[in-house]
Design brief:
β2, α2 and β3 form a beta-alpha-beta unit. The chain has 8 helices and 7 strands, in the order βαβαβαβαββαβααα. It is α/β, with parallel strands linked by helices. Helices cover 42% and strands 16% of the residues. It has a single domain, classed as Spore Coat Polysaccharide Biosynthesis Protein SpsA, Chain A. The chain has a 7-stranded mixed beta sheet with strand order 3-2-1-4-6-5-7, sandwiched between helices.
């Protein structure tokens, strides 16, 4: 089995998850974003196909908690948007291990299952570059590049189309819903909750929802 280094991008928590405004208030959203990231990284680190996880972020609160899980935190030195941060993170991984196979994974996959991530990464290892589309079928939740292959991330908006156009192979697997279900909207969150989210998201959502109701 190929073993991967993952790069996970996380924007400053105060700016995260604005599209959840119809479901979570301004006070709750940063805490949910952090819980999503912690559950995502914890599940990734539990995956036998993952060697290590590098999180690209400048958020100090997130840095401390992610490092405590065992992730390496890489500052977003370029500060030039998502794809620049991802390329920089991949470069930081390969500065230590030049032959590393690298995959980008979204930070908002709170229902992530290690076994499903293993299936996705095992399939990705067949190709020089490969990606998994999101549950909506238009975005991307994972982009993988084999050893010696440039990542060339094109995340944001209609990224499935851009990754296909760049020559990356689309990973076509059933029963990997937890790797596809990122959370941007209230409907996304409800879908993730139905799949079964990790403990940090479950606790934060239960606490926050009760606070809003109160």
């Amino acid at each position: 089995m190929a073993v991967w280094s993952l790069v996970v991008p996380l924007k400053p928590l105060a700016l995260a998850k604005s599209r959840l405004a119809d479901t979570a208030d301004e006070a709750l959203r940063p805490y949910l974003a952090l819980a999503f990231a912690l559950d995502t990284v914890a599940a990734a680190l539990a995956c036998p196909a993952v060697r290590d996880v590098a999180v690209v972020t400048d958020d100090p609160a997130a840095t401390a908690e992610l490092a405590a899980l065992g992730a390496r935190v890489v500052p977003d030195t370029p500060a030039a948007g998502l794809n620049a941060a991802l390329a920089y993170g991949a470069g930081a991984v390969r500065a230590r291990r030049p032959a590393a196979a690298v995959a980008v994974l979204n930070a908002d996959l709170p229902a992530l299952r290690p076994a499903e991530l293993t299936r996705v990464l095992t399939t990705a290892s067949i190709f020089p570059r490969a990606f998994l589309t999101d549950a909506a079928g238009i975005g991307t939740t994972l982009l993988a590049a084999a050893s010696g292959v440039e990542l060339r991330p094109a995340f944001g908006g209609l990224s499935r189309r851009r990754h296909l156009a760049s020559g990356a192979a689309e990973i076509l697997l059933d029963d990997v819903d937890s790797v596809r279900q990122d959370v941007d909207t209230g409907d996304d969150l409800r879908a993730a909750l139905a799949l079964g989210v990790g403990p940090r998201t479950a606790e934060r959502w239960e606490t926050g929802a009760h606070a809003m109701d109160g």
